[in-house]
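Components:
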Amino acid sequence: MPMVASGLIALLKRPHRKLASVLAVGSLGFSLFLSVIAFGHVLSGWAHGAMVREIVSFPWIHVGAGSVDLGWVLDPLAAVMLVMVSFVGLLIFIYSVGYMAHDENFTRFFCFLSLFAGAMLGVVISNSLLLLFMCWEIVGLTSYLLIGFWYQKPAAAAAAKKAFVTTRVGDVFFFLGIVWLFSSTGTLLLYNHGIGSLEGLALANLLTQHAGLGLSAAGAIALLIFAGAVGKSGQIPLHVWLPDAMEGPTPVSALIHAATMVAAGVFLVARVYPLMSIGAPAGGTTAALTVVTWVGAATAVFAALIAIAQNDIKRILAYSTVSQLGYMMAGLGVGGVAVGMFHLITHAFFKALLFLGAGSVIHGCHEEQDIRRMGGLRSDMPLTFLTYAIGMLALCGFPIFFSGFWSKDGILEAAQHSAAIKGPFYLLVFGALLTAFYMMRQVCYVFLGYWRGHQTAHESPKVMTTPLVILAFFAMALGLIGTPAWPWFHAFLDGRAAAISFHSLIEPSFLLVMATSTLVVFFGLGFGWRLYGNKSPKPEEPDALEKSVPWLWAPLRDRLYVDEFYGVTVIAFYAWWARVADWIDRRVWGGIVALVASLFAFWAQLNRLLDINWVDGGFDKTCEEISEGGGLLASLQSGRVQSYLRILAVAVVALALVLYWSSRP
Amino acid sequence: MTTPLAGYLLVAALLFAIGLGGALVRRNAILVLIGIELMLNAANLNLIAFWRFGPHPEALTGMMFAIFSIAVAAAEAAVGLGLVIAIYRHTNTAELDKIDRMKG
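Structure:
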């Protein structure tokens, strides 16, 4: 498995366009094949009633008596993510072959893309937090490279920098958490036959240590690691980079900012879930999980609010991603690994579908991204419209047939059951309402009404629409493996057997949640339809919502001023601090450096004088002598064969005479 | 009465000297080649003579040696003449004094 990841990357430094794409697609296809095998392996182990957890570890660095170990792990969580990442990734790769066909840096693009996929697979299967962190950072790096792929555009370059720096803030905390974990448990392996840092012994040990503020060491470390996930998954307050990251090519947006990279943060929380949940009272929750839940729920609503008032097709999707990631986090917080991961998987499919659909729209509308300048694409791009509509309904959580419904309901139900805190439940329901509303608004703007752009739109090529169709199929079908009637997915992750029982479908509590969410979804869709359906406003006209509640619209359009807030606080402080550091650098350290430099310069002058007058003189003389000697010898080599022969003959005669005379007694 | 060894050697030495003289003073490459052939044959004569007057005249070693040498000389002459023709074609002359550049 790790070989696939690394081989994938190493192979891809070729300057041939075709070869690059074939290699990228082929290698990812191969890792999909291996992932499916691994998945099948875990599945068969599970069918026998055993929880499969295979570990391969090896020491990396020896430090004193101990060592830092790295390793890989294969368990249901990793297997599910492996298949998801490589499958969605593969579809996106195929799609990019069409999307990037006219780009001159086609090869570079696929090189980065494969590096990204390899690192992502590494994150999924690593059994050591350190290794996970390394792959995590490679993922961050490639995301930087891919967002800034069109680095000629200043906006793209700035967005890349912003993404890199913002996620770095979270990563610093993550790394602190890793170091703390290492110092208190002495190992970074997650699972190691009972002595890994996520297994009973180490967890019990961590629980007894106190870190202040009423937290155990386990809780504090969990929070630090969660901070890393906040950065990567675009949760409040580090969500600002994700919408800007839409400056990259659309397949990148789909791959990184929908399906895989942002999911890495959620995956990380799921991975260290034992650390998060240790010490919870029966039926209760821990401080770490409470924080996760609240941050997730707040993000879900916050981002959904902003998404309402955006006009860039990809930006809406980006905020929707942030919002859905909030759902996943909240799901992890209230319902455990399975609930959050289920939404992660379904979301990966339908959000990749939406992004690729948006890419197809942008492609078809000649690089137009403003939804106010689209419209009526339903008839121009029927296939894109159909698949996009499926993705949109899945995202809204349209009942019964779409995967988003089941996964979102799982979260809502878990939130409702959660004994300790009720607030997140209401937040999440409100978020669902907003989601349905803003998606309806977007679809009305883009696909309904009449065309408001300049050039006519056209449908995208087959290589782009085929992945759309496949993704659309999964966006619908995937929900069926996680319905309450047949909780196959949850059982698989927990290592239990899955029983089919339609009774759970009509349990009153579940019915209530289902009814609520259905109602909310229909209300959101209906409200959106009423405001935007078939209206086709002119691009210059103010938005329907803007007309009715302008005081609400303005802050939403300006993204609730988070960027501006950071601008006047954190960034201003850094700028001031940078100026101070610059002054110190120039005046204090610069002076010392200049002094040392002038000393050395003086010494060098001295050396130079010695060199020229003394060393060089002798050397030059030697060279002259050698050159003269060479000239002398060269005159012997006239090129006349007979003169050589003559010299030879004279020499032989002389030799004969010498021999003759010397042999005489 | 047979001729003594010294007689053969004297003839061979004479032949060698003639060949050497020819190779050194002639200007034409072909004549130089002929001089070289003469020197070679002087050596062959020496081989035969030393064999005939050596300790084992009944073994055919010397004869074999000479025949072998003659065969090689024939090959060498062919190669030499080929070279001369190639040089002539290239420079339009067979005068050795004028062919004093190592490269074309």
